[in-house]
Each structure stands twice: as structure tokens, then as C-alpha cells.
What we know:
Layout: E1 4-11, E2 15-17, H1 36-39, H2 42-47, H3 58-69, E3 70-76, H4 77-84, E4 96-100, E5 108-109, E6 115-119, H5 122-134, E7 138-143, H6 145-153, E8 159-165, E9 173-174, E10 184-193, E11 198-206
Parallel strand pairs: 1-7, 1-8, 3-4, 3-7, 4-6
Antiparallel strand pairs: 2-9, 5-6, 8-11, 10-11
Amino acid sequence: MSKVFVSVGITLDGFMAGLNGGPQKPLGEGGLAIHEWVFKQQIFRQHLGWGNDGETGKDNEIAKGIFDRIGANILGKNMFIEGEANWPEDAPFHCPVFVLTHETREPWVRKGGTTFYFENDGIYAALEKAKAVAGDKDIRISGGAKVIQQYLNAGLVEEFIIHQVPLLLGKGVRLFENLDTDKYSFEIIEAINSPEVTHIRYKVINKK
């Protein structure tokens, strides 16, 4: 059965993006540095059509495991706007992507198996549609922060993976804000580190 999970990069001080993000500055001021570790991995470079070079160690294995399990993605309109202007022609998802928006728009088909669907009926409808196309694979709540927070507060996230980098951003978009902490708790499943990033995988325990 499909599992709903989050996989997100953050800084030591809890930011997942910098300030003033947009199409000309994806992930905001200093935000790209949060993901420097994954840009170097072979699997990431393959997904973006950059060739077969790149690192092949344990960080690559973790990234590959995440890519391989995803059957559909859900993301917010702001994240889509940033990406639309910067993703290559074969967008890096390689599976259906549901964009939460108030905009009415026909599906946008890209090379490599990525099709963006624009969902106007909220987080529950988007999740049901994602589950319908994901098959036996999982659904990733990709971001941004507000979308992740909405799915957490709704009790819909089952697993939470943080890729924490040794970086202090000082200001930006915080991941852990606007949360109803009475509704869930976290249990560590696994923690793996490398010189550049620590991967922490949590089970989300939703309280009924």
C-alpha cells in the first residue's frame, strides 16, 4: 500500500529555503546551498539528464532509494513557479506531479514521464488523485513549507525524512512553523551521516 512521506533538506537552524525566493532566485537567498550535497550525486544528475557522472557513495544510495519509491509528487504553486522557470525540458520528477493551486490549467506534459496536474480542490483531493496513479509506490509531499505543514496538521503524513546540512542560514523559510504539535509525534527509524549531510528518517505517529 502506498505511503505518504516527506523528504526535505534543512539547515541546522531549521530553514528549508532562503528569503525572497522566486523564478529568478529559486529557493531564495542562500537556499541552493541546502541541496549542494544532492547536486553532486550520480542519481540526481541522471534524473536531470546531466549524464552519468557524479558521486556513488551512501548519499547517492539514499537519494536513489527516495527517487525509486516515488509514484507521485504533491507540491504547492510557489514551488512550481520557481521550478517551471528553471527545470530542464525533462523535468526531474519522472512521474505525475499534482500542483495545489487556484489556477485552472490543462495538464503540462514534459519529457521523461513527468506530467503536472493542477489541483483546485485542496489537499485531500490532490492526495486521492496521487494515490490513484502511484500504484504500489509512495506519494511524496515535496513542499514548500506551507504544503508540508498542511499535510502534517491533517494527519496525512506517515514518514518524515530530513536531510540536515551543517549550515546556518540565519533567516528564511522555516519548516517547523504553524504546526499543531498536539496531533502527532515522531519516532526515529534511522539516522545516517556523511561529511556533508545527516539523513534522519522518522515515523510520524498521528494521534487520533
